[in-house]
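Q: I have 149 residues here and want to know how they pack in 3D. Can you give me a structure?
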Amino acid sequence: MKPEVDVVLGGFLGTLLTEIAPQLGAEYSLGSVGLIAMTVGMAAQEFDRAADLRVAENREMRALFSEAAKLVGDRELAARLEEAAASQDGSFRVSALNATNDALAKLLIELQAHVEESQADWAAPFEAKIWDYIVGAAERRRVVLPTFG
């Protein structure tokens, strides 16, 4: 699409905040327009990065699973980790990437619980790797609010 969706949404954001909001008299209306404008801005950011972010997260979780499959003693869990590590994103549509990301995240939660319960020597360092992934994923998903003026 030309212009790109994030550019269009950014234009809407600017118009709502700089042209429409100042013309409103009621506090409720002004607050509503401000909230809508910020939501449009966040949607613009998410549109631009959505697929890239999810592909990167899926790749990182698969790398963790590949490593963990060689370490965990639970054969059934190890087999599911190997299967997930070998999987690929079949589509780059955000809805498909979200579905894959959700499935991988559920397996990551299961792996994290297993690692936290494990007394093996590898468990504590691997738990730190999982937390590094979680913190990094949260940071990448952080929304930066626009500044005006």
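Q: Anything worth noting?
A: The CA atoms of residues 6 and 44 lie 4 Å apart. The chain has a mean pLDDT of 90.
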